[in-house]
Amino acid sequence: MSDSDLSITYIGGPTVLIELAGMRLLTDPTFDDAGATYVRTSTLHKLAGPAIPASALGRIDAVLLSHHQHADNLDTAGEAVLKKAARVVTTVEGTAELGGNAIGLAPWQSAEIEGPHGKTLRIMATPARHVPPERASVPVTGFVLDALGGVYISGDTVMYEGVREVIERMHPRIAVLHLGAARVEYAGPAPLTMTAEEAVEFARLAPQTRIVPIHYEGWAHFSEGRDTIADAFRAADLSERLVWLRAGEPVIID
Question: For the chain, which ranges sit under pLDDT 50?
Answer without folding.
Answer: 1
